From TrEMBL, chain A:
Keywords: Cell membrane, Membrane, Transmembrane, Transmembrane helix. The chain crosses the membrane at residues 41-62, 88-111, 123-142, 162-190, 211-239. GO terms for biological process: aerobic electron transport chain. PROSITE patterns: COX3. This is Cytochrome bo(3) ubiquinol oxidase subunit 3.
From TrEMBL, chain B:
It comes from Bradyrhizobium betae. It is found in: Cell membrane. InterPro entries: Cyt_c_oxidase_su4_prok. The chain crosses the membrane at residues 36-59, 65-84, 91-113. Its main location: membrane. Keywords: Cell membrane, Membrane, Transmembrane, Transmembrane helix. GO terms for cellular component: plasma membrane. It is a multi-pass membrane protein. The lineage of its organism: Bacteria, Pseudomonadati, Pseudomonadota, Alphaproteobacteria, Hyphomicrobiales. This is Cytochrome C oxidase subunit IV. It comes from the Bacteria. It holds the Pfam family COX4_pro.
């Protein structure tokens, strides 16, 4: 497939301002996303569909929590930890949040260095991002272990509404899976960056296409999305 | 790629017509100063701390919920706009991605009605006095 030449990859320069520009871009037999490559557009569309998946999870959690007559367990207490003899509410979740945000920060910088063709810095920052992600998943594994030891099951728990367990395992489990896949994705791309695949135009093993540093940004889109989903889980499941 | 193009903030091209764009086309991809990412990173830390403090100080009621939602939306906005570069994408893409999730809000309102009804039925017919 011939790569379409991207003209004006700058900012949102439409031919017409506002809604008229959107209509002009979408109308007639032409390419809708003018300065966006197919890879990036497809990642965005995938993320949109993933948004709906997580929305449905959070919605079913909302429905379960609103319709139950049994009190909902207090997440602030459930996820509290005793650190240094002090009882701190929700501290593990707060640390996990900071770890994930930091991973997003390093990822954003990796994208930047990728476009500057600084492949060593890009690869290192991507690996740091992957390390943060792995840390996050480990902390989640610790959290799951702790809750299971305390008797939380998808069908019951010691503190209140039975749906707490099923919502918790479903939502955080699916998010943790996304993080894990992201870590694998990051390591795979970081290896290619490190090897200089995108400098010499080496063909990929699966698609036989030449890669470009844009794949770093596409990986980054996925990674930031994982962070974005956590923002909503943190607000609705842990804080609410 | 030269440092000049690296430093170039995309906005400068905003009014460049498509036809003359190839001159700038070699500035491929998103180029923004690192400082921007560090500032956003810091803000995300501040906002996360704020939302954690909402829980830590045990704020309750509508104050708690409005603060949680406020910090959540600010964080989500920063991540999408800056980290995911949506602020610099063409409107045709931004609207195609950002508008459909609004439908989720319709779904939310439907399920709120539904779960209130279910709760009502459970209280009426099944609930044991607490």
């Amino acid at each position: 497939m011939a790569e379409t030449i991207l003209t004006n990859t700058g900012p949102g320069a439409g031919r017409l301002p506002g809604w008229r520009g959107i209509a002009a871009d979408w109308a007639s037999d032409q390419r809708a996303f003018k300065n966006v490559s197919w890879g990036k557009a497809m990642m965005w569309i995938f993320l949109l569909s993933d948004t709906f998946i997580f929305s449905c999870f959070l919605l079913s959690y909302m429905t379960a929590r609103m319709s139950t007559t049994v009190p909902w367990p207090n997440p602030s207490e459930v996820f509290a930890l005793n650190l240094g003899g002090k009882h701190i509410p929700l501290i593990l979740i707060a640390i996990m949040t900071f770890v994930l945000i930091s991973s997003s920060g390093t990822m954003a910088m990796a994208v930047n260095f990728g476009y500057r063709r600084d492949r060593v810095r890009t690869a290192i920052l991507m690996l740091v991002t992957a390390a943060f992600g792995a840390t996050f998943v480990s902390m989640q594994a610790f959290e799951w272990t702790k809750l299971i030891m305390e008797g939380v099951r998808p069908w019951s728990n010691p503190w209140g509404a039975a749906q707490f367990g099923s919502s918790f395992f479903m939502i955080t489990g699916f998010h943790g899976t996304h993080v894990t896949i992201g870590v694998i994705f990051l390591i795979a791309i970081a290896r290619k960056v490190w090897r200089g695949d995108f400098d010499v135009g080496r063909r990929g093993f699966f698609t036989s296409r030449r890669g470009y540093y844009e794949i770093v940004e596409i990986t980054g889109l996925y990674w930031h999305f994982v962070d974005l989903v956590w923002v909503f889980i943190f607000a609705f499941f842990y804080l609410w | 790629m030269t440092n000049a193009t690296v430093q170039m903030e995309g906005q400068l091209q905003d009014h460049v017509h498509d036809a003359v764009a190839p001159a700038a086309a070699h500035a491929k991809g998103q180029q923004h100063p690192i400082k921007l990412y560090l500032v956003v990173w810091a803000w995300l830390f501040v906002l996360s701390t704020c939302s954690y403090l909402v829980d830590y100080f045990g704020l309750q009621g509508s104050l708690r919920w409005s603060l949680i939602l406020l910090f959540m939306m600010l964080k989500a906005g920063l991540i999408v706009a800056v980290f995911m570069h949506m602020a610099w994408e063409r409107l045709a893409l931004a609207y195609a991605i950002l508008l459909p999730p609004v439908a989720v809000l319709v779904f939310v309102s439907i399920m709120v009605l539904e779960s209130e009804y279910t709760h009502f039925l459970r209280v009426m017919f099944f609930a044991t006095p607490a």
